[in-house]
Amino acid sequence: MTASPELGTARPASPQLFRAVFRQHAAGVAVITAQRDGLPVGFTATSLNSVAAEPPLLSFGIGTGSSSWPVVSEAEHIGVHILGEHQEDLAATFARSGADRFGGATRWQPGPEGVPVLDGVLAWLVCRVVARIPAGDHRIVVGEAVYGEPAGAGRPLLYHQGRFNALRD
Fold first, then answer.
1. What keywords would UniProt list here (predicted)?
2. Residue 151 belongs to domain spanning
3. Does a structural domain hold residue 9?
4. What are phi and psi for residue 149, nearest 5 degrees?
């Protein structure tokens, strides 16, 4: 393969190259929640995607080594929360391994189907899980929205270059 000024030098794909490429991709920040036996779990996700409007389907990825995976792997319903730029601390809490994600400053309440719903988010959905698709060391979870609220105030939190960011005017 030859190099060109537009392409740079092509390198064989590797986990490091893949991560470097996706650091260039700005993504919205969401928190996914679920519960089992009244105990809530959750994690920060930047892999949230709209799949279809009819029926209303979305997807996200979760690592099978995640502390939330054992609950998500069996959950009938999950919560999806779109975070605002004012919720960087919340995103960091749910991204941190070993953190008490539902203690301290985290405001939440049981929502439809018993799913933990976070307070103060831009929007949230409760989804019925319809598929868990193997994808390497992750699973792609597909959910069908059954309840939600889009009326939160503010602007979205973004993730880019390994940091949380906000939109510019």
1. Oxidoreductase
2. 28-166
3. no
4. -150, 120
Q: Which residue do the tokens 């064989």 mark?
A: 12
54 to 51, 103, 133, 144, 145: CA distances (angstroms): 9, 36, 20, 10, 10
Asked if the structure places residue 3 within a domain, the reply is no
What dihedral angle (degrees, nearest 10) is formed by the CA atoms of 98, 110, 28, 156? -120
On whether residue 140 sits in a domain, the answer given is yes
Q: DSSP letter at 23?
A: H
Sequential DSSP letters for 79-97? EEEEPBGGGHHHHHHHHST
Do residues 84 and 155 make contact, with C-beta atoms less than 8 angstroms apart?
yes
Instruction: HSE, CB side, 13 Å, CA atoms: give it for residue 112.
Output: 14
> Per residue of the chain (169 residues), what is the pLDDT tens digit?
555 557 778 889 899 999 889 898 999 999 999 999 989 999 999 999 999 999 999 999 999 999 999 999 999 999 999 999 999 999 999 999 888 899 888 999 999 999 999 999 999 999 999 999 999 999 999 999 999 999 888 999 999 999 999 988 7
Token code pair at residue 163: 């940091």
Asked whether residue 124 is domain-assigned, the answer is yes
